[in-house]
Design a protein that fits this description.
The structure holds three protein chains of three kinds.
Chain A lengths: L1 H22 L15 H4 L1 H35 L12 H15 L4 H25 L5 H26 L5 H10 L7 H20 L1 H8 L2 H6 L4 H23 L5 H13 L3 H25 L7 H18 L8
Chain B lengths: L5 H19 L20 E4 L5 E4 L6 E3 L5 H7 L5 H4 E5 L6 H6 L3 H4 E3 L5 H5 L5 E5 L3 H10 L4 E4 L6 H13 L2 H24 L7 E9 L2 E7 L5 H8 L3 E2 L10 E3 L1 H7 L3 E5 L5 H9 L8 H4 L3 E3 L14 H12 L9 H13 L3 H11 L2
Parallel strand pairs in B: 3-4, 3-6, 4-5, 6-7, 8-10, 8-12, 12-13
Antiparallel strand pairs in B: 1-2, 8-9, 9-11
Chain C lengths: L6 E8 L9 E8 L4 E5 L6 H9 L6 E6 L6 H4 E4 L11 H6 L14 H13 L15 H14 L4 E5 L7 H16 L3 E6 L2 H7 L2 E6 L2 E7 H4 L2 H8 L3 E6 L2 E6 L2
Parallel strand pairs in C: 3-7, 3-8, 5-6, 6-7
Antiparallel strand pairs in C: 1-2, 1-4, 8-9, 10-11
Helix pairs in contact in C: 4-5
The chains are: A mainly alpha, B alpha/beta, C alpha/beta.
């Protein structure tokens, strides 16, 4: 029994590692779909390409995917709802608004975009919380959902306004590309800039993989087990949101990863956070990397990453749900 | 059970990657010139681009790629230099047709391979020794290319004063300084000519001018004005007019309600249309009920902006023709000696070396 | 230092936010190790609220809840069994019971082998070992209740608070659970459970606390507390209380 379980993890880790290495050779240089490894030694440009463009991009895809997967799972457990994703509660639209603002008024400085996305993502979360407290309808999960929809709409309108004010030649395409997600401009500096927030977030969520189980229980039961449900939920939510905001400030909005990957992880690695969280982390990274490989290889131009993750992610999601053996209460 | 060391292990892998990368990569350290495949011109060249960056090459470029959004219009400036067909290896497809460039470079169709959203890898696969991009693409695409050691030269060519300067610098970079100077002088000369002619008339009354575009995507029936800082506005000022739409916010073609046009009641209206013949657009406008009340319509001063291969209001070399034409329309007496046919001939002769037979294609497009 | 009570309440008053009247008014009583106390009353009497006050989940506006210091931290001293739990995630029974070990873990720690051993022990003790790998969503009512109690047992807390543990169980399971609670108390735990069914109380309780509209109206040994007069006052229904072979039996009055 133990042997079989470690085997599953070894397979996953090996798969992620191999995919990462293989991705370094996938692309349109010198011609699609891939470059023979020998080229690293003969072609100076190929070596530069791999080290300065592809390597940070591969790592970024793994990192962004890991953050989205882990945060997605954490949020689904914190909200006791398997249809929640990191972009939930207005966080996604808030981060989009913040990024668009930085693109317009801070000349797309990567640090400014990241900070702005994080600030407005958290602000959206805070607004949703404040708004939910004023609602008098339903349990707190339902209230947060309703408030989240309203706050999302608010920031979405804000993004629309910024799109109108943006220069259609220079800024608007950047905003649109950001909204659809893409890693094509990733360089080492951008990747290093988001490392602190994302790695810290991943570390905290990884350590909290057991605690998330406890927070799935009702507040009184969790309290009886020694948790401070309100505070702990808030802590992990904030950590998730900050990590997600940092990640999406680099990649733009990448949909469906945070929603679908946790389901996939739970299906094959169990519901217990101790296994589903690390699985979400690894599967999220692998899936996003795979989609990014496709986005830079299939056509001459770069397809926005978010489009591919949405396509494959929604497909996978439908398949997962349809093949669910037993009923799930929502 | 989940191996306890997994997190540490993962971090170690990441660190190993990073250390390996940092020690191996040295962006842009190798020389900027790649072996060229034609007659050696060993003179190093240097120029200042639109962002003020100094770009140096070991030799004039022989494999130029025009990459990214909106770069197609830059081709018209690049092809004003000799050997352009031999130097350009790839272009980015744009909204404009390639009919004009085909006259200068029969292989241009094969070269127009890049998509607007092109990534650095695709460009690198062409092994360029110079990539020309619009300046707004520098932070992302430009820096990525530089990290690979590929020289990048940014251009704008969006405002009148940029033309003399940027053409001169482009000439320096291509090793064609004399040509660059000649082109710069042509543009500067024409601009001076317009300015001096306007200055010479005492007490000149500058008409109120409106530039309208019809047929914008998603709003076919509406008429739109360009943003303040676009070349259309600058052209009107240069040609001795007063643009009325200065108060309009919005950074693309902004649809304007007819009441606003009536409120402005401009003296002259220039109509531009990219999809349909501009004359049609003029008819569509003047046939509106509200239009008959406008001064410009009554005075018969609604003019379609001419278009040969490309409309004369675009940020393309032809804007100088558009400006001269506008000046003549707004101040017919003052600019009586200006002969537009002669101006067009001079333009194509000077920039592209067109002779009479080639000019026929231009007259055909213009319908003159 | 020996306390008289493991857990006691003094003049507890609690009102829900924005509520007109307090849910619990001036509650005063104590719970000792080795005894089973039943809190009896109609729906809305405040039983569940009282339970959560004792748990420390609600903070009373006045009065206090005192836990004997010798028993250590609250989370290790008091185990709580809710009435029913619904989760959208299908944990396995063994994982679910393992949650009971959380009070003994650090904030970001994960369970260790000794915690797993504790769960295995409890599964065996409750006779539900075959259920270990079953998802909790696939359990019957009785099995579910046993698992919840198992989670509380794994906590190894001396005090057990249960919210309507037999409410929705069929006859067989009801007595199974009640018998288990009795044995747990006999092993030295303090067991308190709420119920609206006097018969359940009568079967195992040493003491009964009767609550009506937020106030404790009776606090006495079970045989005394569960009387015709008290029950009529409590429920406004006419009942008979008989003694059959030493067991108290509650019947409707004809």
């Amino acid at each position: 029994m133990v042997k079989r379980r470690s085997f599953k993890w070894i397979v996953l880790l090996a798969a992620v590692f191999l995919l990462g290495v293989a991705s370094l050779f996938i692309g349109r240089y010198p011609s699609p779909p891939w470059m023979p490894p020998r080229a690293l030694f003969t072609d100076r440009l190929a070596l530069d390409l791999v080290l300065t463009l592809r390597l940070p991009r591969v790592l970024a895809a793994l990192l962004v995917g890991a953050v989205l997967g882990a945060s997605g799972l954490a949020m689904q457990m914190l909200f006791r709802n398997p249809l929640v994703e990191p972009g939930f509660l207005g966080v996604s639209q808030g981060a989009a608004f913040g990024a668009a603002l930085a693109i317009l008024y801070f000349a797309s400085n990567p640090f400014a975009v990241q900070a702005s996305a994080a600030v407005f993502g958290l602000a959206a979360l805070g607004l949703t919380y404040l708004f939910a407290r004023r609602l008098r309808y339903g349990g707190w999960v339902l209230r947060m959902v309703l408030a989240g929809i309203a706050v999302s709409a608010l920031f979405s309108a804000g993004v629309g306004l910024l799109k109108y004010l943006a220069d259609p030649l220079t800024q608007l395409p950047e905003i649109v590309f950001w909204l659809l997600g893409g890693l094509w401009a990733t360089r080492w500096s951008a990747l290093l800039a988001i490392l602190p927030a994302t790695l810290l977030g991943l570390a905290v969520l990884f350590l909290a993989r057991w605690r998330l189980n406890v927070l799935v229980l009702e507040d009184d039961a969790a309290f009886a087990l020694g948790a401070r449900p309100g505070r702990e939920r808030a802590l992990f939510l904030v950590v998730s949101v900050v990590a997600v905001a940092a990640a999406v400030s680099l990649s733009g909005i990448v949909a469906w990863v945070g929603l679908m990957i946790p389901h996939l992880a739970r299906r094959f690695y169990g519901v217990d956070g101790r296994s589903s969280l690390p699985a979400s982390l690894l599967l999220g990274g692998a899936f996003t990397l795979l989609c990014d490989d496709l986005s830079r290889t299939i056509t001459v131009g770069e397809i926005p990453l978010g489009i591919i993750t949405a396509l494959l992610g929604s497909l996978a999601f439908v398949v997962l749900l349809a093949s669910e053996g037993r009923e799930v209460e929502l | 059970m989940m191996p306890r060391l997994s997190l540490r292990f993962a971090l170690a892998v990441v660190l190993a990657y990073l250390l390996a990368a940092c020690s191996l990569s040295s962006p842009g350290s190798h020389s900027a010139s790649l072996p060229s495949d034609s007659a050696p011109s060993p003179n190093p060249v240097q120029a200042v681009d639109a962002l003020g960056r100094v770009v140096s090459l070991g030799a004039p470029p022989r494999r130029i790629v025009l990459a990214g959004k909106a770069s197609l219009l830059l081709a018209d400036a690049l092809y004003a230099f000799p050997d352009a067909p031999q130097r350009v290896v790839a272009l980015t497809k744009g909204k404009q047709s390639l009919d004009f460039l085909k006259l200068l470079d029969p292989d241009v169709q094969k070269k127009a391979v890049l998509a607007r959203e092109v990534g650095p890898e695709q460009i690198a696969a062409l092994h360029p020794d110079l990539v020309i991009i619009k300046s707004f693409l520098y932070p992302k695409l430009g820096k990525s290319l530089e990290a690979l050691g590929i020289p990048v030269f940014t251009m704008r060519l969006e405002a009148p004063e940029q033309y003399p300067r940027e053409l001169r610098e482009l000439g320096k970079l291509l090793g064609e300084e004399k040509r660059g100077d000649a082109l710069a002088d042509y543009f500067a000369g024409k601009m001076d000519f317009l300015q001096q002619t306007l200055d010479s008339a005492n007490g000149l009354s500058k008409p109120q001018v409106l530039v309208l575009r019809s047929g914008i995507r998603g709003n076919r029936g509406a008429f739109a004005v360009p943003p303040k800082n676009w070349i259309q506005t600058r052209m009107v000022v240069l040609a001795g007019g007063r643009p009325v739409w200065g108060s309009v916010q919005g950074s693309g073609w902004t649809p304007i309600p007819l009441e606003q046009i009536a409120a402005w009641n401009p003296d002259v209206i220039f109509v531009v249309s990219y999809q349909r013949p501009p004359a049609e657009a003029v008819k569509k406008f003047t046939s509106l009920r509200l239009a008959s009340a406008l001064k410009a319509v009554r005075d018969d001063k609604v003019f379609p902006i001419p278009a040969d291969f490309i409309s004369w209001d675009q940020p393309d070399t032809r804007w100088i023709l558009g400006a001269q034409w506008m000046a003549k329309k707004m101040h017919p007496d003052l600019f009586a000696p200006l002969d537009m046919r002669e101006a067009v001939s001079e333009f194509y002769r000077t920039l592209y070396g067109f002779d009479e037979s080639r000019l026929k294609a231009v007259w055909a497009k213009l319908g003159w | 230092m020996k306390c008289r009570f493991a857990l006691e309440a003094h003049a507890l008053t609690y009102r829900y936010p924005k509520a007109a009247v307090p849910a619990v008014l001036n509650a005063d009583f104590g719970l000792s190790r080795g005894e089973v106390v039943a809190v009896l009353g109609p729906n809305g009497a405040g039983k569940s609220t009282l339970l959560r006050l004792l748990l420390g989940f609600y903070r009373p506006q006045s009065g206090e809840v005192r836990l004997c210091p010798a028993l250590g931290a609250r989370r290790k001293a008091i185990a709580f069994v809710p009435q029913r739990e619904q989760t959208p995630f299908a944990f396995r029974v063994a994982e679910y019971m393992l949650l009971g070990r959380t009070p003994h873990l650090g904030f970001l720690a994960s369970p260790k082998p000794e915690d797993l051993a504790e769960v295995a022990l409890t599964l065996r003790k409750l006779g539900i070992e075959p259920l270990a790998d079953k998802p909790i969503t696939a359990l019957s009512g009785g099995e579910h209740q046993l698992v919840l109690i198992g989670r509380a047992l794994v906590q190894k807390a001396p005090i057990l608070l249960l919210d309507e543990p037999t409410n929705h169980l069929d006859l067989g399971n009801r007595y199974r659970v009640l018998t288990l609670l009795r044995s747990l108390a006999d092993e030295g735990r303090a067991v308190l459970f709420t119920t609206h069914d006097p018969q359940s109380a009568a079967v195992i309780a040493d003491r009964a606390v009767l609550m009506k509209e937020g106030s404790i109206i009776v606090d006495a040994p079970a045989k005394e507390a569960i009387s015709e007069a008290n029950l009529s006052q409590l429920y406004g229904a006419f009942v008979r209380v008989e003694s059959v072979e030493g067991f108290t039996v509650v019947l409707p009055r004809r």
